[in-house]
Every structure is written in C-alpha cells, then in structure tokens.
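Journal club side-thread
Mid-discussion, someone asked how the predicted structure for our own chain would compare to the paper's figures. Pasting it here so we can look after the session.
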Amino acid sequence: MYTIKNYHFAESVDEVAALLQKSRANTVLGGGTWLRLGERNIATAIDLSHLGLDQITETEEEITLGAMVSLRALEQSTLLQTQFGGLLARCVRHIVGVQFRGLATVGASVASRYGFSDVITALLALDTEVELCPGGRLPLAAYLQQPPARQLLVAVHIKKDGCTAVHTSHRLTETDFPVLAVAAARCKDGSFRISVGARPAVAQRCPQAEQAAEANGPEAAGEAAAEMLQFGSNTRSSAEYRKVLAKVLVTRALTELAEKESLAR
C-alpha cells in the first residue's frame, strides 16, 4: 500500500508542475489501480480531479483525450466508436474488467510507459502527440523514447487524418495482460502505421513492417515485424514465441484492415 503524508487537490496544471519539481516524493495520482501492489512513501499526493482533465473533446483537426479520461470512457464514447475505425473503443475491451477500466486513466497508462499497455499500442498507430507541463507538445513515439521526467502529462492529441485502424492481441485468458498486442492503421495516402506492444517492452512502431505492407502485403509485413523488432521473455511467454506471434498478429491485423476498408467502399 501507499503511505501518503499530504493529499492535495491541484487547482492548475502549473501548480502540479511546481509541486513535482519541488520534491521527488511528490506524486500525481492517476486511477490508483495499483495501490495494493507495492509499497511507496508519498510526501504529497496530487489529485487532478479538479482540473477538468476527464473530457474527450473534438475540433476540426483533432481529438483530445484529457489525462484523467478513464479507459471505460474510451470504450463508451460514441465519438471514438466511429473515429479511426473504432480503434480506441475496441483496444480496451479485454482489459481486466469494467470496474478496473472505470478507474484506469489514459494519462497514467501513457506516462507510466507500461509495456503491456493496449492503449499505447493503439495510440502509436495513430498520429498522436502528448501535451506536457512543462514541455509542451511532442510526438508520442518521441516521448516514449525519453526517460521519465518530472512533468505532468496533461492530454493526448490525435490528428483526425482519416485513417482506418485495427487492434488485435493474444492473451492467455480473456482479461489477462496481452502476451503480444498489435495495432495497424492505413493512412489516406496509402501508407501504413504498425505498432507492436507487450514485447514485453513498451510498444514500438516498426517502419520496416510498414514499408513491407505497402510494397508486398500483410504476410511480408508480418515477417518484417518478427525479424526487425526485439522481443523478451517473461512469465507469460518466451521471446521466441512472441516473435512467432508478431508475424501472425501483424498479418492478421493488416488482413482485417483490408477487409474493413473493402466494406467501407
């Protein structure tokens, strides 16, 4: 369990950023889903619930997910059920259960850089930026490559570029963490974005698979992903099995994507 000395309701994102810089023992609370899975002493727990960051908003150019948007909100959003082929609404449907998805947040999932995150895998297949305080906006892929810093992840911004996308995964049981997860998107110019997560490291795009998909189709892309990405072993799977799965799931995702595009014509 966590031990908290002070509990603070932040009134602005700048206030949160100042508190994070003040002490490494000050911590932003996300959904609180892992409170019982470890021990940690927190000087000041920072609650974001007064900042209005639990909203999904839309402009002509992009969709914005506030940091406190829950995974259940992603699943239930009528907007997200129609955008990007329903990718964001579908990618969370296997995550533990409704109660858990009602607590877990987008911001915590991304900021924690969880290797098993279906949300990160899906967002990488889209044209996604994160908004930080301090730091401003930068591409999600670049953010994931940086070491964790004392910043507040304020929101996730997704460009409405007209892409169609799909998500698939392999799990040992229906609501377990993924053994491997894949998201694939087809852009209007015919190019692809392919990301592979739960390797078990954090999700990563595979440019070689994207190029192979455009030139030679789904099976070639699957082979490229299996060869070019690095895989590791943990209690759920060996690296060798993940490599085989990558070929299968990338091929499957791209085949499903082609079928979805055909039905949309």
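Post-session note: The chain has a mean pLDDT of 93.
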